Predict the 3D structure of the following.
Amino acid sequence: MRTNNKSTLSKITESRNFGLVLGLIVLLIVAAIITPSMYSLNSILNMLQNNAVYGLLAIGEMMVIITAGIDISIGATLSLTGVICCRLMAENPGVPGIVWLVLSLVIGALCGAFNGLLVGYFKMVPMIATLGTMYIFRGFSFLFSGGEWWFPHQFTEGYMAFATKKILGIPSILWILIIVFVLAILFLGYTSKGRRIYAIGTNQESAQVAGIKQPRVVFLAMTLCGMLAGLSGMLYTANYATCSYMIGDAYEMTAIAICILGGVSIVGGKGKVDGVIIGFLMMSVITYFISLLPGLSVWSDAIQGAIIIAAVALNKFTERSAEKRALKERSALI
Amino acid sequence: MSGEKNTNVPVRDLSVKQGFKLSKFLVSWEMVLIYILLLINVVLMVSRTNLYFSPGTIQAIIQSGMDVCPLVLGMILILMLGDIDVSVASTMIFASMATGLCCQAGMSAFVGVIVGIAAGALCGLFNGYFVAYVEMPAVIVTIATSMLFRGIVKIILDVNVLKQFPSFYTTVAWTNIAGIPLSLILFLVMGAVFVFLLQKSRFGRKLYIIGNNATCAQYSGIDVRKTKLIVFVLMGVMCGVASIFFVGRMGGSVSSTMGTGYEMTAIAICVLGGVSTNGGKGKVYGPIIATLIMAFLTYTLGLLEVDANTRKIVTGFILIIAVLIPNVNRQLIANLKLKFVYKGNKNVEALNIKTAAEVKALKATIDETKKDSAMNDADKSAKIKKCEDKIAALQKKCKEQTEIWLREQKEDERKAKERFAAK
């Protein structure tokens, strides 16, 4: 049994998010000292706007990782959706933008459902299945694009409005991101389907004994992940108003990195949306910071890799120390 | 070991002796791979006859696929543990860079190669430490280190290209000895070493145990952590060796963006070769044949004017199908039948299976009676008639019972729904 007589303050300081927030604040201070230009509302909004896609991908990826799986095809899904939407949009400029939003959701959901079918119903190892589908989606993305590029003059106003139009001074892509965050919190925390995702990840066998159908839950999680990847594909192209089949390369890695930074356990069952939000903020600050400093851009890969390793190692060590503390408490009770 | 000390104690013979069965051998996965290889060859031969028989084509095809071969061999061991390593391409580039920098500094070729392999081993050690001793999941560690190692190469090289490499690099990749590519010979030699290592040595058998059940391996006295670390270091060494093949193949130059996607090819080849990604299953022969298949496939598709990205789609589908094929077995068919024919009712399934078995037995009796020469025709036909009647009765009974049970099931479902609706 867990003892509940701790003070609220110690609870806060012991939680993982506290460390993350502390890290974020330190990072912001360092960034402020080195590049003071970072602190204007405009540049902060800009930073968030350009990184919003990672937030969407990370939320989807989180659901899959919680089921003890992994999806490395989301970058390819993003590319496929972006290409299809851009191509059709350039050919039919008269169609209202909302159609492309819905279309992107549908395409993404189909890609995710294919993954879910392979992983959930055919019991393939998630890594291998999504590795295969990554190849497939990328290939199809190239086939649909025909190697073409799309440039800003081909983009319709209604299409770009979903990412760049400002509502109450905030770009709409951020509003969409906020809505997705809220929906994810509600879905994962307060619906039975969301709780089932956690149950499958924590202990598959006991979840099955409790009457949860593992294939169905995995299918659902992967479909949602694909859907968000599709949405981010459309929003990415709308935000930058350029598109080619090469977009979204290695984005899955960044999404996974955000999840791990946010305390999502890669073996499944653990992870919260608020952690992912903090992880997302941290990653955006880091990438923005790197892009501001001249000559640092070649370092970005190495820095990202080092951050992931450090984050997971930190996760491991905090878990171990928590286990040790729990053991001590238990032995003290005896 | 204690068993070796007192050898006069009679030991129970635990070895399982399996006779060689031709029918089983012909449908084994390795043979299936050989059939696929032959099929691709035939397709190539028919579609591009002139090219196929012109000298040097086959050698060129084989050489084109050999630059991943050391990665494949190392990856077999990693997958055997149930882990995965997606940093191999970055490690390979890292090792190439180390060699290139040494050669640029004017050191001898021998030192350069040693430094390259040592750099690979160091990367492997880094991965292995985090996977084995910090107990981080291999996927995450290697995803991160793939960024890290390539990032370091990017920092050091920026946009420069290293061009000074030992001259034997290109020799390895491009020459033939008596019509056989040197790279293939080296690959087969390395393959033989790995066959010995994995299938005959004590170390290799440990890997199978760890792959099947790590906890069990721990309790039976295997140092799982140390073994994992060794395997990852070995993978790093193989990456160093791969850098020789790779740089030679690229004509003796290296830049930081080269070789992306090699890790995926290596994993795909291993999976195609029948190595289970869950660990504990697979042999070395399969991936060796699969390496050749991949080389021939890429080349053939290229010759058939399929562009690089469609080839990607084909590779993806092959990967998925190769993993799915072992899943298609009797159990799956039985499960599907249970779900769709018997509507998930296990009683109905059992009844149907039982009836089918009885009917089969009766039919066998009929056949026997037909062949039986001791009876006269009248008796025969009477007996056959009897059996046929029995079959019809059984089938009718089974059908009726099935209908009753299914109706009951439907009724139950309806009642359950009503109960929920009432609440």
